Amino acid sequence: MNKWNIMSNFENEMRHIYHELALRLNLSNSSFGVLYALVETDQNLTQKELCNYLLSSKTTINSAVKKLISNNLVVMDETKKVKLTKKGIEVKEKFISKIIEDEKNAFNNISDKNFEIVNNVANTYLNELKKSFSKYNEVN
Length: 140
Prior knowledge:
There is one protein chain. This protein is mostly helical. It has a three-stranded antiparallel sheet with strand order 1-3-2. The longest helix is centred in the last third of the chain and has 23 residues, at about 85-110. The protein has one domain (about 5-135): Arc Repressor Mutant, subunit A, CATH 1.10.10. Strand 2 and strand 3 form a beta hairpin. About 70% of the residues lie in helices and about 5% in strands. Helix 2 packs across helix 4, helix 2 packs across helix 5 and helix 3 crosses helix 4.
């Protein structure tokens, strides 16, 4: 297997892990993302802020927020910010905060030496992508 396939498989596996997690919580990927963003930032966010944070379209975020509102997990306050309800806070405490803690623990279980290697590889890859992709402009 070549380097590109390995990285592509890694990226797909990461997406699959979070997709399966969202399904186990009976959430869509985008609804899980909205809850995750609210917990991780520890802020109430507008739909536009959620779009920017999650790199998702307005339609996707709007649908996710509507679904979360219908499930009584979030509300939109008077400033149009999405915030967790009492039930949403329970989900935060029971699941989302623990998931974030599990992610941190997974990183902490990587030795410093291996983490340094991963960090160097990731940064090199990102810099190479940025350099390569800088040549692309508008389609039309």
